[in-house]
Design goal:
542 residues; mainly beta; 12-stranded mixed sheet; 9-stranded antiparallel sheet; 32% strand; globular; disordered N terminus
Length: 542
């Protein structure tokens, strides 16, 4: 009898094994769309916003993972229809990218300035399209302004362990330079809009870095018909899209013996609690030039000192009324991506206006779970079944793990973790390069960041930093901006608000290792420039 039972178990196991399969790797991707009310077109002097920062995936899955958190795209404003075939903007924001070398579960921030049709982009001081310093497409597009914050080429780090706090940032133009009639030796003008990144975090507030006007205008030197069409000259379009763009969350799919398709996604987290909501976007504000530009311009021309405080009386806050939707899809390997079925996001998430200026998501009970020991995060459903809707196309509906047939292999499958690159970021070291002539005045100094990398940095006189030397500026023009930046360093300290403050939630912090103090004698007119970033702590998945 025992032998007969044993034989039965062997036969059953063999049958199960015959139907079991190895799940196919794929991805989930799409947008979360956030509707908000428009403001008057006259508020075209920049914007600010507060967005939640959190570890979107419970475990960092490797460099295929790419997703922004909530953010926006700031385009130039035109009096009529925008020129055709003319993509240029400031985007970026919080997130993870395929070229992030020192990523953790905690997001980083990049500036994301895009030159004409992605011919170049600039992500921060010393960071841009590619890492080829012989062809620096955007690597010199941003200048360091703050003497108190390091900017690593891999992105601006947030404090490890951030779990849904609000990160405040925005861009306003400053008249740091004067308009020019010539660009790159051509009779093409360059404007004087230095679009400057302002932050409002728990441990740093104020301006950090700015896009050099030359970054935008040099496309006009190659095609003079484009003169005056970029952000060095144009105001900003105040009515911007607000979305969360996700390009790759790891997923896998498999079929059961009946041919029904199931999917699993990597554990994905959002701020909030079951049956409750947390602020995801707060106080999207558009400004007129009266908010900051005019007071700073008067100051630079000999008038009273400008405080740097961005005026709320010259602003308009976009309001929320709730609503919104998802376009997230789980893709079937080898099939038409345009026809990929969408995830039934609405079954577990309800977008809501928490108040007129705050947007969040109410998480529906029953389909979500808490994210481990965290009371501030929820984990989205991991398992889905492909279902045909009688009233529409196929879609992925949520199922429990117990509803997923064992033969699919999905319940026990593990997402592979690719090896990371171990290559450091290294800046030019040639003695005749702009990094060495005239070169730094102090350093090297080193800091170990929360992401496990080590940065090496030097102190440069502001006008001598490499970005300024590659900005199509004469020595006299660099000295003029040097004097204006010295005025800012003396007056605008990092311990007070510049952007209008948040009225809900708590503020996120920058990685404390990024905060520095200038050496004695270099407090005014000098900035720290990172020249190298490499692994200090060996990643587990190397």
């Amino acid at each position: 009898m025992t032998s007969l039972l044993l034989s039965s178990h062997v036969i059953l196991a063999a049958t199960m094994f015959a139907h079991a399969q190895t799940p196919q790797l794929t991805e989930m991707a799409g947008y979360l769309i956030v509707p908000h009310e428009r403001v008057d077109r006259s508020y075209n002097g920049g914007f600010s916003m507060y967005v939640a920062a959190w570890p979107m995936l419970r475990s960092y899955p490797g460099q295929d993972f790419q997703s922004g958190l909530f953010g926006t795209w700031m385009f130039p404003q035109f009096d009529g229809e925008a020129p055709k075939d003319h993509y240029t903007d400031i985007e970026g924001g919080l997130g993870w990218w395929r070229d992030t070398r020192f990523a953790t579960e905690t997001p980083k921030f990049i500036m994301g300035g895009v030159a004409l049709n992605f011919s170049e982009w600039a992500n921060g001081p010393g960071a841009g399209k590619g890492r080829d310093w012989k062809n620096p497409t955007g690597l010199y597009g941003v200048a360091q302004l703050s003497p108190w914050v390091l900017w690593p080429p891999d992105g601006l780090n947030l404090k490890q362990g951030t779990q849904g706090e609000l990160f405040g940032y925005g861009y306003l133009p400053l008249p740091l330079t004067d308009p020019k009639t010539r660009t790159a030796g051509r009779e093409v003008p360059t404007g004087n809009h230095s679009w400057t990144l302002f932050l409002n975090s728990a441990n740093f507030k104020g301006p950090v870095a700015f896009f050099l006007p030359h970054f935008w205008a040099k496309a006009s030197a190659e095609n003079p018909k484009l003169a005056g069409q970029f952000l060095d000259t144009r105001p900003s379009e105040p009515n911007k899209a607000v979305q969360m763009e996700t390009q790759h969350i790891p997923a896998m799919v498999a079929q059961d013996r009946a041919g029904i398709t199931y999917a699993r996604i990597a554990p994905t987290q959002f701020p909030g609690a079951i049956g409750k909501e947390a602020p995801l976007i707060h106080r999207i504000t558009a400004y007129s030039k009266d908010a900051l530009w005019h007071s700073v311009d008067r100051w630079f021309r000999g008038g009273p000192a400008a405080s740097g405080l961005v005026s709320e009386s010259s602003s308009s806050v976009h309001t929320f009324k709730g609503g919104g939707y998802s376009t997230w899809k789980i893709y079937l390997p080898g099939e038409d991506r345009a026809k990929a079925p969408e995830v039934d996001w609405a079954s577990y998430a309800t977008p809501v206006a928490l108040n007129d200026s705050t947007y969040g998501i109410r998480w529906n009970r029953g389909l979500l779970s808490r994210s481990g020991a965290s009371a501030s995060l929820v984990t989205l459903p991991e398992f889905y079944r492909l279902t045909t809707n009688a009233n529409g196309p196929e879609r992925w509906v949520v199922v429990t793990p117990g509803e997923v047939p064992a033969e699919t292999g999905l319940r026990d499958a593990k997402f592979p973790v690719p090896k990371r690159t171990t290559d450091p970021y290294v800046t030019p070291n040639e003695p005749d390069s702009s990094w060495k002539k005239p070169g730094p005045v102090a350093g090297p100094f080193k800091r170990v960041l929360g992401d496990g990398s080590e940065v090496t940095y030097f102190w440069y006189r502001f006008a001598d930093q490499p970005a300024l030397q590659n900005a199509d500026m004469t020595r006299a023009e660099r000295e003029a901006i040097q004097k204006r930046v010295e005025q800012i360093h003396r007056r605008w300290k990092p311990n007070r608000n510049y952007l209008p403050p948040n009225s809900v939630g708590r503020l996120a912090s920058l990685d404390p290792a990024l905060l520095v103090k200038p050496p004695r004698g270099l407090e005014v007119g000098y900035v720290p420039i990172v020249t190298r970033q490499g692994w200090r702590v060996t990643p587990k998945d190397r």
